[in-house]
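Aim 2 progress update. The chain analyzed this quarter is reproduced below.
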Amino acid sequence: MASEISPKAEISPKAKIGNNCKIFPFVYIEDDVVIGDNCIIFPFVSILNGTRMGNGNKIHQGSVIAALPQDFNFRGEKSECIIGDNNIIRENVVINRATHTGGQTVIGNNNVLMEGAHISHDTKVDNDCVFGYGTKIAGDCVIGHGVIFSSSVIENAGTRVGDGAMIQAGTTFSKDVPPYIVCSKRSEYGGVNFTMGRSYGVDEKVLKHIANAYRLVYLSNTSLFDAIKQIENQVPDSPEIRNILKFMRSTTLGVIGKK
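Predicted structure tokens:
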């Protein structure tokens, strides 16, 4: 089915628009843009050069996709902003494209970005995440699957958030947040995110094993290195435990709440 495009939208003839899209008045779309099928673009949205958007996305009023990176190293290079499928991007969201040639800012599938959220240059977001009102994600961050950010969270540059983590409202953090935990407002370990684990069908025994792993990290008087060794030796193996160990081993900034 042909797309329904308002004559009051300003769309470059070089942009590629998929089938069955609805584009409202006062939308602005630049040359180097690809939009998939079944997308809805509400009024006053700007979709700028470097956007590669999949299918079934809804972009609400005032949002800017592939905005120029807010990075002093940016010199006008050609880069991309990749948006997957079935994302809901609410009012006044800003997503920056990457800084350097060939770089990508990536938003996966089935994510919800609430009003005023900002995803900065070169950040990579997996699937099924929620970004609460006014949440700001700095450049070069990596965010796993099923992460929930409450409102007004600030994630500082270069940090990572593991799968299934939840960040409480008003939190600012500068270290990595491990998988399956709650990050408290003081950027400290606030327990295992049992709600998310159960919603994804994680077995209760595995949830207990995850809790035991984090007791070794946070409640024992030992280094992160030694805690990793103890988890390897004491906690039964599962994909979730392997995910935790991989995340811990690869941290360069350290993890929240652990010196």
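The first strand starts at residue 4 and ends at 5. The mean pLDDT is 96. These observations will guide the mutagenesis experiments scheduled for the next reporting period.
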